[in-house]
Design brief:
By secondary structure, the chain is α/β, with parallel strands linked by helices. It contains 16 helices and 16 strands. A hairpin with a 2-residue loop joins strand 15 and strand 16 (441-442). The protein binds zinc ion.
Length: 444
């Protein structure tokens, strides 16, 4: 128990008391905190059976248009973190009663900074920005040493927030620069270790202060040998003053250590487009990076004319470079429909929950799917049901023809139980998440 934290929540208290009393693994304690699966238990062999689980089974058509989604109730057995059996409902079986809740794939937040947040600490609004991104770098150099003091604790709180919104997996960027050195990474790894039964993550080594503007090179090289998955980056032209040198370094580091790439690109002018085109060229030259390279934000796409948008989308698809978007609105509306049209992988994330960049993160990626549906007019049953894929990193219960494709026997038992009748309703209403299961463990 963290006796040093003077504000232990009731939930933590119950969890920790039960842990002490039973001397057991974390799973039953997490369940004690779950509002929905409270009284249930997973057997010692990791088995969990659920009855009255609602699954989507197909579309209902009228004059060729999808007008509703068909569902049915099922009996689902989970063992060793996987779905072992999906069979017709057994309402009288001795099993956890899902009470007709809708089962959907667990959500994934594919762009967040779990290492760098005020969440779990005291509220602070964003300060007036001075000096652009370089001004923000100077601000971070001042504030990071203080933020790092309890960053493990805050990361755990943020993970709990994400779980309460149905997310059990995140791609987290983690600051790697001369101020944090590898401490932000090490602190986050501790939090992830504590949460590993109920939450999964992949990490991006993120040179927030530039690769060369502040000399992050030795730290990035060290991080690349640690347990990270992607080499990150941010606005090479604005911060380092060079596109080629920074991208070349990033690509080479990723190749040397068999990592992916995920670069923040906020630039909206010529340098933004030049960066996209140079990255496409480098990935085509190094095809082993196809399918594991991403541009986060990539605001320049919103500034291009329609013809150019389509052309760039097609090239991104060919190079298998994905776009991770927080679905900005206002003066900057991303061409998400054009990206989908060309089969570009589109992912989303909260980015910031509460930090010195932004305080509007809800923790919900279902809310992002809802925002996308509203922004682009995806308002029919069919289009709403497709919009769910933004929250699940592209896993959908039904394919476009209405054929059931998830869940299947053998899949990881990663799912949410929602207070909704179908995906379309869940997206449109941002329905409540009643429970979250991660690899067969009850996470919420
Ligand atoms: Zn970010």
């Amino acid at each position: 128990m963290k006796t040093s934290d003077n504000s232990i929540s009731r939930k933590d208290f119950i969890r920790n008391s039960a842990l002490a009393a039973a001397g057991l693994t974390l799973i039953p304690q997490i369940m004690a905190a779950s509002p929905f699966l409270k009284e249930q238990s997973i057997s010692a062999s990791g088995k969990l059976s659920l009855k009255n689980v609602r699954l989507e089974t197909g579309f209902e058509y009228e004059e060729g248009e999808v007008v509703s989604t068909k569902t049915g109730l099922f009996y689902i057995e989970i063992e060793n973190g996987k779905i072992k059996n999906i069979t017709p409902n057994q309402p009288n079986a001795k099993a956890v009663d899902a009470k007709g809740m809708l089962m959907l794939p667990a959500f994934k937040d594919m762009h967040i900074h779990l290492d760098k947040t005020f969440y779990g600490d005291k509220w602070q609004a964003v300060r007036k920005r001075t000096g652009g991104v370089k001004g923000m770098i100077a601000l971070e150099q001042k504030m990071l040493p203080e933020m790092l003091k309890n960053s493990t604790f805050k990361a755990e709180k943020m993970i709990e927030l994400l779980q309460s919104k149905g997310t059990s997996f995140a791609r987290s960027h983690v600051n790697i620069e001369p101020t944090s050195k590898l401490d932000s990474l090490k602190n986050l790894q501790k939090a992830l270790e504590h949460k590993k039964k109920s939450f999964g993550a992949e990490l991006v080594a993120f040179p927030q202060h530039g690769v060369f503007y502040t000399d992050s090179v030795p730290y990035l090289k060290e991080a690349a040998q640690m347990d990270i998955d992607f080499i990150g980056g941010v606005d090479p032209f604005t911060i380092d003053g060079t596109i080629e040198k920074t991208i070349d370094f990033t690509v080479q580091l990723a190749l040397d250590h068999k990592k992916g790439i995920d670069i923040h690109l906020h630039e909206t002018g010529e340098s933004g487009l030049n960066t996209v085109e140079y990255l496409i060229k480098k990935i085509n030259e190094n095809p082993s990076l196809k399918g594991k390279t991403y541009l986060s934000h990539c605001f320049i796409l919103a500034k291009l004319d329609k013809v150019k948008q389509e052309e760039v989308a097609e090239k991104l698809a060919e190079a298998q470079i994905g776009i991770v978007s927080t679905i900005p609105f206002g003066s900057l509306v991303m061409p998400i429909p054009a990206l989908y049209k060309h089969n570009v992988t589109v992912l989303t994330g909260n980015d910031s929950i509460v930090d010195h960049w932004n305080t509007f993160g809800t923790g919900s990626v279902l809310q992002k799917a809802n925002l996308m549906a509203q922004l682009y007019g995806f308002s029919t049953e069919f289009l709403l049901s497709r919009s769910l894929k933004l929250a699940t990193a592209n896993i959908l219960p039904l394919d476009d023809k209405g054929v059931q494709q998830w869940p299947k026997t053998g899949d990881h038992a990663d799912f949410v139980l929602m207070d909704a009748s179908c995906s379309a309703e869940a997206v449109s209403r941002i329905s409540d998440v009643k429970s979250l299961i991660h690899k067969g463990n009850v996470a919420y």
